Amino acid sequence: MVKASLMAMVLMSVCISSLISFALAVEKFKVVGKVYCDTCRVEFETKLSEPIPGATVKLECRKVRDEAVTYSREAVTNATGGYSIPVEGDHEAEICKVSVEKSPRADCNEKMEAWEKSQVELTTQDGLADPITTANNLGFKKKEALPGCPQVLKDMGFPLTP
Ligand SMILES: *[C@@H]1O[C@H](CO)[C@@H](O)[C@H](O)[C@H]1NC(C)=O
After folding, report:
1. Which UniProt keywords apply (predicted)?
2. CB-based pocket (< 6 A), ligand 1
3. At residue 85, does pLDDT exceed 90?
4. Which of 32, 57, 84 to mutate to test the pocket of ligand 1 (most atoms within 8 A of CB)?
5. Residue 81 Cα: closest atom of ligand 1
């Protein structure tokens, strides 16, 4: 008897809390993006840049006023280096950023400022219509540049470095 009523209470509270979270935390946005390996160590994309599957990224929103964290979610990139992070609620007057956290590749795990973070707008208050926000590409720098890099960079119009 005690067991049964306890069970009922647990079930009821699960129902209520999921109803509440459904009402309060409707998924409004999605942040999508890709994580690459900078195989030429140049901090911009080349045709030799490789997508990194299994990389961890984190979306974090902070209040502009006191920098308190209001939302935080992690995701792992799929086979093509892509990720998709659901966003609940509206994040007006907040600064939201996606950042790379962890690389699964030992040969490509160096963080660099240019590809470490991307700021995203996650509010409908300023008339943003698209529920899917695409972040700038993120990535890690490879420990050693690929042998094909000098030619690729030359083709892109950069002088060969001795
Ligand atoms: C990887 O994730 C991206 C972003 O969600 C998606 O567009 C793409 O179709 C996914 N690819 C695979 C192979 O699942």
Report:
1. Disulfide bond, Signal
2. 32, 78-80, 82, 84
3. yes
4. 84
5. 1
Cα–ligand 1 centroid distance for 82 (angstroms): 5
42 CA to centre of ligand 1 in angstroms: 26
Provide the pLDDT confidence category of residue 92 given band limits of 50, 70 and 90: confident
Q: Which domains does the chain have, with CATH numbers?
A: 27-155 (2.60.40.10)
β-sheet bridge partners, residue 88: 27
With a CB cutoff of 8 Å and minimum separation 6, the contacts of 76 are 54, 55, 56, 57, 83
Q: Identify whether the C-beta of residue 51 lies closer than 8 Å to the C-beta of residue 63.
A: no
CA-to-CA dists, residue 106 to 23, 52, 58, 115, 124, angstroms: 43, 12, 20, 17, 40
